[in-house]
């Protein structure tokens, strides 16, 4: 079933991109109408897609997937973006995109397993140490609501939010497990800290209101593009079902934070992280969908949270289809809501920024810890050096991927040293 899921998911995602229905890369989505409406050639679209997505697959998706042996969604859907845009715009091209996309999905699934098996047979098996990359994330992710508050409402309110989240976390550590009516209930400290921070952020955000209707005007101006998304609802719902089912099988994760929590077996905490991320992506997905007529194959990413909460692939598939359908059906209403509460829209942007900044720090620390566990001393030197070189070189590798990538390279270097009988 997992094999079938990965093949169907890869094939359908490539077809959706080929037909201009859904694109995963947020930066590529606004470019699709340029081709659909005849202002860009197929060749230019394909080249743009490759330039925007290939580096992220190699430098972002694959390293995270290897660190946990769980596929990060970026690995597959950024690849299918490339496949879909390169396939010809015809029935034959659509079939080609579907077949190549399916093979790509299968290749990722079994290729990752193959690479893991190779690493296990190396003189220095560094996969267990590589898992340390995600250790800081498990605790640090609860701090991002405070960072989002600081970005939007100032450092003082951000510090207050961080302090409140920290106090709640320590109370959870002190009093967990709770006894409720003779039933023992374990309370996750990081989960409680996250919920506290998100509540404070939403309280601050909902206090900002507006009487204007800029986003509502956007809906009326792009009504044809909204109608195009709704016309393709069945295909998008099917895509949501496939992604949610794969997440329910725990072979797929929607973001690095939930991926590392899934690796630790903390599914409820992973679901909370995915839910918070979904809130952050509402404004981006909603506004770009309305303006372009192109949706995301994972919708507003709530399907990942639903799948992790349900923990059952069949129920997750049904939930995934329903959630994306509701997102599309209420797209107009959602735009109006965002317009009435501009603070929530800004909060979404700040949540994404805060999560990115937090991941950059946590993954750099995690990468250094993992690399140093593999090669004591040299690991710290190599990761720090690579990070600085990456900054000087205008970031050929995205910042948050430097730590995991460097840790993998240190593992390979350790094996080369072992083969050459060089001590480390």
TrEMBL record:
It holds the Pfam family YhfT. The keyword Transmembrane applies. It comes from the Bacteria. The chain crosses the membrane at residues 46-73, 94-116, 136-153, 187-205, 233-252, 272-295, 302-331, 361-389, 401-422. Keywords: Membrane, Transmembrane, Transmembrane helix. InterPro entries: Uncharacterised_YhfT (IPR019733). The keyword Glycoprotein does not apply. This is Uncharacterized protein YhfT. It comes from Halanaerobium saccharolyticum. The lineage of its organism: Bacteria, Bacillati, Bacillota, Clostridia, Halanaerobiales.
